[in-house]
Amino acid sequence: MKHQLSKITPYVTAKALQEAEARLVKPEVIDGRPVYVNLKPQDIKQRLELFQPRRPGYGLRTLDTNHVNTLVTRINRKGELDPPLVVKFETTNQYTGKVDGHEWVVVDGHHRLAAYQKAKHTGPISCQWFAGPARAAMDASVHRNEKAHLPIEQGDKHEAAWTRTLLDWDGKGWRSSKQMVVKLTGCSDGTVAMMRRVVKWHHNYMTGVDKNPMGERLFTRLGSDLSVHPWSKVNGVRLDLSPEQESKHDAAAKLAKQLNSRMPILRTTDPEVTARALWLYDRDLCPKLLAALQAQMQSGEDDDEGLDNGESPLAAADDMGA
């Protein structure tokens, strides 16, 4: 089942991960050496709910066009790129439920595969077959992108950390340490700590352990299952954003979607040309737009810093043993 990137929640990922573990086919590994297979780019499928750590344009598109074009140039000049990382899943007949074949799915290398297809490269390419479980493959998709390739945006790091915060919660504590999540996703220590406190506040209120005001707000506005909401939504409730603030965010998301579908050229146009076009369009708007853009950029930078610098003694107590 295909999922729109902007609609993927931790709940969707958890269900997909359970299915993936059951259908996963692992390679035969000899002496711990990587296993490589030759596959045609067009035959490799995507499972965005499992293996896509980036959500360009708030999930309105799956790829960065400029990066794909850069890779196409590299293919034309030098040939094959680094091998994408893939996994193999059994496929089943939708009527009988019996295994009827298999499929290859990309874990890391979405942009490389898109570049091969744009370059009209239809021959087999070398791919590394991931040898671990599906959860490890999911983590590898984040880790490999954090270490190299196209950088992951801050908001995407937050969503990756939020998904793992919920996946590893067992009702009492976490199966992974806070530092493991920080290291894997690149999300700040303070942000992951806050995510864990949010889960505890919500859980304690719902179970009657502690009728705290924050837990009540989270439960009242988000319901009994936090996994059906992205961190951006949950954090908005935590911050108690006003209806006006939420309305502005929703309006911005709607406008971003319209720009993505009607004016995709903005992503590839020279910024100076875009700036001049806006000046010609409405020069009175430009100073206001510049001030608002600077404030938005500063707000994004301050988000993690505020959580890190504002870590309270209660936060440390909440995370002991994590």
UniProtKB/TrEMBL annotation:
InterPro entries to which the protein is assigned, alphabetical: ParB/Sulfiredoxin_sf
CDD domains per record: ParB_N_Srx
Domain of life: Bacteria
Region (Disordered): 296-322
Protein name per Swiss-Prot or TrEMBL: ParB/Sulfiredoxin domain-containing protein
Annotated organism of origin: Bradyrhizobium elkanii
